[in-house]
Amino acid sequence: SMQSIFAIGELLVILTGGIDLSLGSLVAFSGMLLAAVMTKLVDGGMGVPEATFVGILVVLIFSGGLGLLHATLVHHLKLPPFV
Q1: Is residue 83 predicted with pLDDT exceeding 70?
Q2: What is the rounded distance in angstroms from the CA atom of residue 42 to the CA atom of residue 15?
Q3: What is the Cα–Cα distance from 14 to 18, expressed in whole angstroms?
Q4: Per residue, what are the HEC states of the chain?
Q5: What is the predicted pLDDT for the residue at 1?
Q6: Spatial separation of the C-alpha atoms in residues 77 and 24, rounded to whole Å
Q7: Helix, strand, coil % (nearest 5) of the chain?
Q8: Would you state the torsion angle of the CA atoms of residues 11, 13, 15, 19, taken in this order, to the nearest 10 degrees?
Q9: Does residue 74 contact residue 81 with C-beta atoms inside 8 Å?
Q10: Residue 77 per-residue DSSP state
Q11: Between 15 and 22, where is the model more confident?
């Protein structure tokens, strides 16, 4: 189901004319960030369910910010989205 979500997002990007390959690297980075955040939180004494919730929030905020930054660079600076 995760691949379907990513595929739908990528389909929307392709249909709008901007072929964006940064999604794969952002997914990989988000997974590593989630693992790092959860490791720090669990090692710090937080329970696994709470660490999972906080880790997912951190990753969603950070990944959303990176996506917004990329979209801003493509739109305002006219950089090619094919990066």
Answers
A1: no
A2: 41
A3: 6
A4: CHHHHHHHHHHHHHHCCCCCCHHHHHHHHHHHHHHHHHHHHHHCCCCHHHHHHHHHHHHHHHHHHHHHHHHHHHHHCCCCCCC
A5: 76
A6: 22
A7: 80, 0, 20
A8: -100
A9: yes
A10: S
A11: 15
